[in-house]
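Appendix C reproduces, verbatim, an entry submitted by the partner laboratory led by Prof. M.T., so that reviewers can inspect both the input and the predicted structure.
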Amino acid sequence: MIIKEKKTYQDTKGNEFEGVIVWDDAMKGSKPGILISHMWSGQSDFEVEKATELAKLGYVGFAIDNYGKGRRADGPEEAEKLMVELDSNRPLLLERMLLAVETLKNHTEVDASQIGAIGFCFGGKCVLDLARSGAEICGVVSFHGLLDPPLSHPNKEIKSKILVLHGWEDPMALPDDMVKLSHELNKFSADWNLHVYGHTGHAFTNPKAKFPEKGLFFEPKSNKRSWNSMVYFFNEAFN
């Protein structure tokens, strides 16, 4: 049976965050845990659905909250405001990602030595920053993520395996940005893979993305292929 548990957690300043942890209680013993970092609008049903799909694969999925309890966007303007708060303060973004990692590690269903993370759009940037920090986790996967490094790069060896899943026509991170990322990951000794999907723009995993004129559109083939690539990646990363 799939169990969904709302999880409230706090940072050292008393700020509250609320995510959802999902697992299958038919699978006994501790299991690898995977964070799901949200898009620019904040933690939503989309990420909880991904956590549920991960639970069906035998993982503990944690749809995390990087904005704060009750802070969710109702539209693009509010989403941009929330995202910019963290995008302009990457050290704070990283603090919140590390807090989520520790919260997941401490869950009774989780094998703390086997932690991964996936992220979508802005969430892709979040999981890449987690890897950039030198965090000792098994692997991160960015789905149509934002690829730019922090201005104050931590300059640490990257210990996590990395998989980047990206659309060739993504206006948010162009082919040149993919090349820059590959040089960055090489510089910091990362074990990385980059899969690029043709005729694919930004937000290709999101069925609600219907703005082809802006380069934001759902692409079913790329959605399926990218998920299958993630499954293979974590099969390897956790073994």
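The chain has a mean pLDDT of 97. Additional entries are available on request from the coordinating office.
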